[in-house]
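User: Here's a chain of 369 residues. Predict its fold as tokens.
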Amino acid sequence: MGDGESASSRGTGALPIPHPPLPGPQLPDPFSEIRMTSLHSLRGANFWSERPVTRMDLVIGAYEDVSSAQVPGFLEALQRAMPGLVEHRCSIGERGGFLTRLRRGTYAPHIIEHVALELQTMAGHDVGFGKTRGGDSPDEYTMVFEHRNGGVGLRAAALALDLVQKAFARELASVDDAVTELRAIAESPDAPELHRRVRCGITGGDHRRETREELTRRGLSGSDIVVDVAPSYILQAGLPYSRSDIAIILDARPLDVPERYQDTERARRLVSVLADAVPRTGTVIAPAKEWEIQDYARNGGCGVAIFATDDDVTENDRRVARAVASVQRGRIVIERSGYSSDAGPIREDAPPVAQVTAALTMAILERAS
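Assistant: Prediction complete.
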């Protein structure tokens, strides 16, 4: 349960060097130092998981330098209140792993993640996935964990924060009231699952609107729903639909997200979320040479079509792709099954990437119809 770790300098998986216990008067006030900055329930496929998760952003102030090993009685108080924590394997990978982390020293965001999971377990929901990662400054963290009910997940996050604050303040006695509250919330209907199906989703850092306009210009039916999904929306809320026949990933440059998600690896993972809603019969349209994105889609069982705004497409790409669109001598060329077709000239009134991907999308739809 709960495989996440705080991801500052101590988040690499190595266990921190134990610090000596801090006497009570030296402990910072956990109620003012450890604070929630945002809280979200993600219903659809998202950056962290294909399943619904709760996300909480935190700042921990002075508790960036205070671990569980430094607080006398911290481990014992959590064990008494939540005996089921012994089942959390954590990154150590065995029963009692999380308790070992507590004993050796781990930090507030990681502890809150595990407490949120265990509260839901005590309330009758079988959950185990969680991650905690560092933010843009040393004391900022993002914590995510799975939920079975969105309302339960949101409240479990807030209650876990409160309980961990109390544990650091040496005021934690019982979690019974928190569990009772979560059980009551669980009796209320959850938000309905996403069942919305769309024809096409589009993401990337630029030219999403122009691509949608090009699809309309090329004759996409008004009844075919096309959704422009900004990377920032995916990050904050997950996909707004459950299934799309086609996903268009224009690039891996999501400029509307915090800097840490613009890192190449994270950016590719973020835009690739669009592929999570594409069935095996569907197609993910990805840029040439973005092999990580293409492999992610293929590993999920999707067909992959490749585009380039020049003619720089490798022979291997042509061989393995469902279709390829490129620009040759100023014209859009669609290649599939050894045959080529001309999809018209590149115009000056729209970005080439929008024109090429729209032409490729329409060719795929025409072939499927």
